[in-house]
Each structure stands twice: as C-alpha cells, then as structure tokens.
Write a sequence for this structure.
C-alpha cells in the first residue's frame, strides 16, 4: 500500500515526514506541477515524484492521497482522486468555494469513498483533553465557548494565503477555531453574526480581524475574537530557544474558555496549560474551584497543538482496515457552512442562518471568500 501527496509545498513536505517511516506503507509518491520542487524532494527523501497527476491516479498501489496543495486546488484534486477510487485526506479548508466543498461531500457519498478533512485539532491533546472532560460529564452541559486568537502577521505580503483565491481568512485559518466548539458541544450552529473592522494589514485581500458569535441548537453560544496584526512580529526568533516562551507576553494569545453547567475549562497555548474548574452550589451561592491543572513540555508541543502526525497515520490505518474517516464529510462541510456564514455576515452586517447558507452552498451560490 502506497500513499501519495498531492501538492508538495510546506504542508506536503510535512506529511512526507510523518509517513516516511510508517511501517504500513510500501512507498510514497509526491505530485506537484513544479518540476523543480519535485526534484528537490527526490534529492531529499527516498520517494517517487511526478508532475503527472495521472501517474498517481492510475497506480493501483496508491490507496490513499493527501491533498496538500493550495486551497483553490483542493476540490479539483480531491474529486479526481475520489473518481479514481482513492481514499482522500484533504487539508482544510475543503475548498475555496462552498459549492466545491458541497460537491466533495456529495461525491464521497455517491461513490462510497473515503474523504476526511484535516481538522487535526481534534487529534491534539490540548483539545482532546477538554473533549474528554465534556464526555465524562465533568463540565455538565456546555453553555459558552470563548476563543481569543491574537497572532502577528506571519504570512508576509507575497503569500498566496493573503489573496482572495485562498478562500478567505475563515476557511484558511479560522475554520479550526469554529470547528472545535461544534465538536465539543456536539451541536450544530444555527446562526452566525460576525463583524469586521477595516483591515490593519493594507496588502491583505482577505480580512485580518473578526468578532464572530455563533448560536448552537442547544442554546449554547460561541464567540471568536481574532486580531491578526497586534502581536509582535517574530521572524527573528532565536531558533535555539523555545518559541512559545519567546512569544509569551508580547501580545500573542490563543486561549479557549469553555463554561458548562457543572464546571469550566481553559486551554492556553502560550501558558502551556489546561485547567478545569468545578462548580458547587452552597449556602453562600455558586462556588467555583480550580480542581485540575495540566502542563506539557516543549518536546510535546506538536502532540498538544497541531497533531498532524497522528492524524496522517490514523488515516492510513483507517484506509488499510476499511474503516470510515474519523471526521465524516458532512461534519467537515458543516464547519465550512459556519465559515461561509461568518464571511457573509461580515459582508452584509446581519445575522446569517446556517440553513440559508446550506441551501446557497448546495445551489452553488456562495463563496467562502471574504474580501476587503
């Protein structure tokens, strides 16, 4: 059984690193339209390379493909692979256009194909710990989820991610942070209201800030506060030092607060901490106690923060064993609907119902692109 990587940029090379020594695989093949890039990879790794997509799709030994190309190529590559009978693991977002994302989910159903989307935070211990607490009933019913995300402008003016064709900031970057509350609450978003100020980053064709509120079917509410330009620029960090420690206190923040009927949780990347509180009703009133605090070491950052290694290897094993994806196509599509609703709400300055977005996406009338 071989695996293929479709799109050999930075993420593609990351996946190659994850799978290179996987004992289940007999080989890897990397596809890219850039011959110079495939030559670089062939010189660096013991893998096959090609600039011809058909060579991958026609190879019966290739059972699973990892779509790691730019966002505007996700749908075309995923649909071609599904049509060829390959299992597909596509990086988020599913596609740059909601119509294409809906077509991917529909094709996976029609072909009984394997399609998983790369929401690797569902594999990452920082967030699986909170999910475990919720599933064990320690937080009770989830009532509110608040995410504060403040990075610096880390892409640079020449990145394709700053262009409208990327699918917008929500699809490219923020889809992770609205996907997690859906997973934690076990409930679907029914309505989104999002507001964006004018951009601080003048050369972005996508928005660089959002204040986005989601209402869930259970009555729970989630809020995402995102400001991209504030935190100190960190292109000159000492590579021999701990990145999170160097960024702590300079404006960087990525923190969740999850409040339930029985307790609460906090995840704090730059503090390397996970906390849990328990609520108790006493004669005085409602008392809250910090009952659990977990930390992790620098060496475990990947496992806790963006566990793409476990995701990639889990996909390979699911394909080998004939098991379904851990994240169903319709599940991932719902997150894409939330992203599109947030962009449309920011465009039009009004709340947007998810049932209306789903109808637009299935009719091919809504883009994920939110532009300035």
């Amino acid at each position: 059984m071989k695996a293929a990587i479709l799109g050999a940029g930075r993420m593609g090379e990351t996946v190659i690193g994850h799978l290179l020594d996987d004992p289940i695989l007999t080989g890897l093949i990397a596809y890219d339209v850039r011959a110079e890039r495939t030559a670089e990879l062939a010189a660096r790794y013991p893998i096959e390379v090609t600039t011809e997509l058909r060579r991958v799709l026609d190879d019966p030994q290739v059972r699973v493909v990892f779509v790691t190309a730019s966002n505007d190529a996700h749908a075309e590559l995923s649909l071609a692979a599904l049509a060829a009978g390959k299992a597909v693991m596509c990086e988020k977002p599913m596609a740059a256009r909601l119509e294409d994302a809906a077509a991917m989910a529909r094709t996976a159903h029609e072909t009984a194909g394997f399609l998983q989307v790369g929401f690797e935070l569902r594999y990452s211990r920082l967030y699986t710990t909170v999910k475990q607490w919720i599933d064990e009933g320690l937080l009770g019913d989830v009532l509110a989820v608040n995410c504060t995300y403040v990075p610096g402008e880390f892409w640079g003016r020449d990145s394709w991610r700053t262009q409208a064709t990327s699918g917008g900031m929500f699809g490219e970057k923020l889809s992770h942070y609205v996907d997690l509350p859906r997973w934690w609450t076990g409930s679907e978003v029914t309505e989104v209201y999002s507001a964006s100020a004018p951009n601080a980053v003048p050369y972005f064709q996508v928005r660089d800030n959002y204040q986005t509120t989601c209402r869930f079917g259970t009555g729970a509410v989630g809020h995402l506060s995102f400001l991209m330009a504030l935190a100190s620029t960190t292109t000159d960090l000492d590579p021999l030092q701990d990145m999170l420690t160097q960024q702590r206190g300079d404006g960087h923040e990525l923190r969740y607060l999850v409040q339930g009927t029985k307790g609460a949780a906090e995840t704090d990347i730059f503090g390397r901490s996970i906390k849990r509180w328990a609520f108790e009703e006493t004669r005085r009133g409602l008392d809250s106690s910090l009952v659990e605090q977990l930390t992790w070491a620098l060496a475990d950052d990947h496992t806790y923060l963006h566990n793409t290694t476990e995701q990639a290897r889990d996909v390979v094993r699911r394909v080998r064993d004939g098991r379904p994806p851990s994240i169903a196509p319709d599940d991932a599509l719902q997150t894409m609907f939330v992203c599109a609703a947030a962009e449309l709400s920011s465009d039009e300055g009004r709340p947007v119902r998810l049932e209306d977005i789903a109808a637009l996406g299935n009719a091919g009338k809504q883009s994920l692109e939110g532009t300035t």
Summary: The longest strand covers residues 286-295. The chain has two domains: 2-119+312-322, 121-308. The domain at 121-308 is CATH 3.30.360.10 (Dihydrodipicolinate Reductase; domain 2).
